[in-house]
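Catalogue entry: protein
Contents: sequence, fold tokens
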Amino acid sequence: MASDLNLAEYVCGQMASAGFIRFKKMFGEFAIYCDEKVVALICDNQVFLKITEQVRAMLGTPPEGPPYPGAKPHFMIDEYLDQPEFLSALVATTAKSLPIPKPKTPKTKPEK
């Protein structure tokens, strides 16, 4: 089931103070970026935050689950969506904990 664009916009607005926040639609769902790092996914209208030990220390034992079949577990953080300061802190901490993404190699056209 595809996630709602309004939810993605709301979630990104709530975490806006974490850094440069944007989202990208992917296969009917959304990836949320903070400072160009994928920190969360919205799948089936639920928000899933990547698991880091730093965020686990902030949350204790939050519910976990895969955002889609076959995915690694993520923190399920829907209960924090109406707490923008805390949500932003979770997202900023996650972004700081993740490695810098590798640059994409440009695609070359095959020679004829």
Q: What stands out?
A: The chain has one domain: 5-97. The beta strands are 21-26, 29-34, 37-43, 46-49, 64-65, 74-76.
